[in-house]
Amino acid sequence: QQPDLVSVIFVRANGERIKASGKVGDSLLDVVVNNNVDLDGFGACEGTLTCSTCHLIFKTADYERLPDKPGDEELDMLDLAYDLTDTSRLGCQITLSKDLDGLEVHVPASINDARAA
Ligand code: FES
Questions:
Q1: CA angle, 77 as apex, 102 and 5 as ends, to 5°?
Q2: How far is the centre of ligand 1, averaged over its atoms, from the C-alpha of 1 (Å)?
Q3: Exposed site from 25, 49, 54, 61, fewest CB < 10 Å?
Q4: pTM to 2 decimals?
Q5: Torsion angles phi and psi, residue 33, rounded to 5
Q6: Residue 81: CB within 6 Å of ligand 1?
Q7: Tens digit of each residue's pLDDT (9 = 90 or more) over 60-108
Q8: Would you call 1 helix, strand, or coil by DSSP?
Q9: Strand pairing category for 5-11 and 103-106
């Protein structure tokens, strides 16, 4: 594995695990797009914080070590996501760093494209 590659595992609601990887500085949305991870409707607004389809659920320990806390715009958008949890974030707002290598995130069972409202 190349030194600047960060591996990420997406776990679907049905338990299926999808291995992917990205570079330091990529967002989790970039990882989904660049690895062609097949998540229906994910990232509909292409990271412009207007859709909530990139909702991902983190393990508590991972959630707490994410470098950036969610901003107001992200929190507003998360409010519109289905299956919201205390450790939910929007994937397009999470930037990979080396110490996130091996990150495992859960994909909620359903997504809500807030733009359709
Ligand atoms: Fe739309 Fe993240 S991709 S809010």
A1: 20
A2: 29
A3: 61
A4: 0.94
A5: -65, -50
A6: no
A7: 999 999 988 999 999 999 999 999 999 999 999 999 999 999 999 999 9
A8: coil
A9: parallel
